[in-house]
Design goal:
Two copies of one chain form a homodimer. Chain A is mainly α. Chain A has ten helices and three strands. Chain A has two domains: about 5-90, Winged helix-like DNA-binding domain superfamily/Winged helix DNA-binding domain (Arc Repressor Mutant, subunit A, Orthogonal Bundle), CATH 1.10.10; about 95-240, Four Helix Bundle (Hemerythrin (Met), subunit A), CATH 1.20.120. Chain A has helices at about 5-10, 25-45, 55-60, 65-80, 95-115, 125-145, 145-160, 165-190, 195-215, 220-240, and strands spanning about 50-55, 80-85, 90. In chain A, strands 1-3-2 form a three-stranded antiparallel sheet. In chain A, β2 and β3 (about 90) form a beta hairpin. The radius of gyration of chain A is 19 Å and the shape is globular. Residues about 1-25 of chain A have low confidence and may be disordered. At the A-B interface, α4, α5 and α8 of A face α4, α5 and α8 of B.
Amino acid sequence: MPYDAGTTWGPTVNDLGMPDMNARLTVRDRNGAMHQEIRQRICLLDYAPGTRLSEAALAQEFGTSRTPIRRVLAQLEDEGLVQSRHGVGTIVTDADINELAQVYRLRVELTELVGRVDPVIPGVEFLDRFDRLVARGAEIIKSASPHEFTRFDMEVFHALLELTANEPLRQTLERLYFQTKRIWLKTAIEAQLDLEEEFRIFHHELEAIQLALRSCDLQAVAHIQRAHISMSFKRLQLQNT
Amino acid sequence: MPYDAGTTWGPTVNDLGMPDMNARLTVRDRNGAMHQEIRQRICLLDYAPGTRLSEAALAQEFGTSRTPIRRVLAQLEDEGLVQSRHGVGTIVTDADINELAQVYRLRVELTELVGRVDPVIPGVEFLDRFDRLVARGAEIIKSASPHEFTRFDMEVFHALLELTANEPLRQTLERLYFQTKRIWLKTAIEAQLDLEEEFRIFHHELEAIQLALRSCDLQAVAHIQRAHISMSFKRLQLQNT
DNA sequence: TATTCTTACGTTGTACACATCTTGTATGTC
DNA sequence: GACATACAAGATGTGTACAACGTAAGAATA
């Protein structure tokens, strides 16, 4: 399946009627979109840890040569999601429970910062959007596919990231999120953690955050997230031993 | 001046008598060394904000083709130190006082974490090394070249980074350091901040940290750093307005 | 049969030619 | 003389051929 750049996300064809004033930025955007796409596949375990990614195959799929693909894979390597080895291949990285613990300890601390450094008081449209997310979450619990649920988790994460205006903090948190989420999911499946239970707990977290949001208490939002991130890893550790 | 890869840093020729068991890692190391070199030049204002870096010139200097250089420049772009624009060039980025403030707010918080998350109790050899650093700092105050002083500042920063074993925290702090230091230095020079006074304050900070280190109080070390980072930016803001 | 060497294949890394884009300059025109 | 236009020069982005490298399969041998 070739990767159609024009219709899905690229601003090459603007979905508004505007004459494409800034359609020239496609070069950077295309790389960004490929990066996001491959990163999501890794996070959703479509590319599980250990998978060998072929530059040639990706190039063919995205309809480019190897060069832009290598640019994206290099970025993913700097983010710790893949590792290229000469003569072998580009392999999706794995992490043992100890490395994972390190990242989690930092994530927990950084998450708390969202409520404290450059907080953004959410507007009405944000609250509405979050309400819809909570409602969708209740539905998704029932279907309960890990793939779909993780997709939903990503969406919620990115929404809550908007609660801080501190761009470096956002970038760092995003980085750590993608480093941990896939390993958590993989380990949780291996350790036969009760995923349905995890989904229910996540939905409870959303409801608690919803309450805190309505009070415009961003520090409370951050503390709730912090607590749940910490607890979800603790449950994984307990089950894993 | 051609860039001699073999003698300065590369493990191509091992300075110990060991047969080069792991000399095969040169591929990755060479890119890492070029990255470190260019990043240092940017940080020391050898490449001031606005400077146009030529891929061809760098390729010639480092004795490679443009391809590995582009790999390094892409990494620097992801770190926010340069920005490549098609048809124009690769330009060293600048930042206004507001962007700088954002990064500083995060740096301040993260610095405090060094003393709290995965702290490393320093051994005797570390204390000795730090003592030598403090002594060298007293000497450097006199010569007082911004270039040399920033080099020293970098060395101290990397030494203190060893006080946490949390690798993601290290990477993040290093990233933020290189984003802020060069802009601070440039702005400080422009605002005619008293650099000698800054150097003396920094040396006081080192002595305070030395004291805290001898007490093995890493949280105190972190708090001292946090306070000085915050204060040095405050002084810059005051002078700048 | 076990073991070692060789060899072929696929992968990433590098170099280079070319495409595409931006900008400054020179030229023609009003 | 002012302004618009065309063009040339130089930069980054892309595609491709080749080199360097590791792995696994297979053949040769003890």
